[in-house]
Amino acid sequence: MSNNDQNHWGTATRGVRVGAERTPEGEHSFPIYATSSFVFESAAQAAARFGGDEPGNIYSRFTNPTVRAFGERLAAMEGGETCVATASGMSAILSTCLALLNQGEHIVAAHTLFGSTIGLFNNHLARFGVTTSYVSPTDLDAWREAITPATRMLFVETPSNPLTEIVDLAALAEIARDNGCLLVVDNCFCTPALQRPIEFGADIVVHSATKFIDGQGRCLGGAVIGDAETVGEKVFGILRSGGASMSPFNAWVFLKALETLEVRMRAHTAAAQTLAEWLEAQPAVERVYYPGLASHPQHELAARQQDGFGGLLSFDVRGGRDAAWRLIDSTRMLSITANLGDTRTTIVHPATTTHSRISAEERARAGIGDGLVRISAGLENVEDIIADLEPGLAA
Hints:
Blueprint: H1 3-7, H2 11-17, H3 43-51, H4 65-78, E1 82-86, H5 89-100, E2 106-110, H6 115-124, E3 131-135, H7 140-146, E4 151-157, H8 169-178, E5 182-186, H9 191-194, E6 204-208, E7 222-226, H10 230-242, H11 248-258, H12 261-280, E8 285-289, H13 299-305, E9 312-317, H14 320-330, E10 335-336, E11 346-348, H15 360-366, E12 372-376, H16 382-394
Parallel strand pairs: 2-3, 2-4, 4-5, 5-6, 10-11
Antiparallel strand pairs: 1-7, 6-7, 8-9, 9-12, 11-12
Helix pairs in contact: 2-4, 4-11, 5-10, 14-16
């Protein structure tokens, strides 16, 4: 199979076929290379590998065939040149920042980022002299005004978690280029099955593979996708020295999961759309946040930029935290867990879980109120999901 063949394949085909060259054993499913190190044919070959003069496996902290296969497949699906696979989504973000930012430099980020990402920027990168300013993800003028001569990175998550705000990626990429900044996009909630930010001008895409890429809540993992120099050399250099490595077993799980990613994402989207429309009609619900609804402020942008609206939605319940907690506690089938992207529908109260470690002021600025409930629509029959929510909303 040639690279030219792969260039003409669709995203689903790439998810099934790329990055799994057969060994002489002739296996049909790519194997797990469960080894910490690799043997060299000679001292000269070992020296050439360590010196970078000869490609090949050295040590599984940074070179492992199963991890490499996963990275090649995900990079092909995203349209990037290379992928660095990491131990978690947060380690993917940390590795990107460590590789590309220096003391005294500046990030402009959406104030709707995942709470742990905000915590990483505010509590840890700040200790090393990297500062962050936060803006509304949908206000392009705010992005422009926040950029300073020290700004090196624009960082955004689209759709956002949990309010599903959509960023105009092409417009933001233009702002980044005009100001000599890198645009980093967290594509965790759409995955390349529904959105490919590099096609709109993003420089780097990051993932928590733990979420929809895995799809069954089994393994932790992350990924950074981009070009051969920025990601393939600089971010890879942090992985090689820092050791935030993906395990071969987890890489094998993710590699297999990519084969069904597009099918699953379309099923998640269909369930979330039905659920969002039903929630919007419930008297106990003040507002539903889902890009597939005509009432969503960026519905038309999402329809142009994405191939589907995704499986994540949230809604405000009348009555604040007490009402939200009663609703969550009334469910019998849904899983009360902060993870998402699972085959099983999950439900959580963001203000006291995923975003509890950021300040009340930051939560208010991001629109995360006490009555907000987040749902990640799973692959159960949607009628059963609705039936599980109905008694709590009726009460």
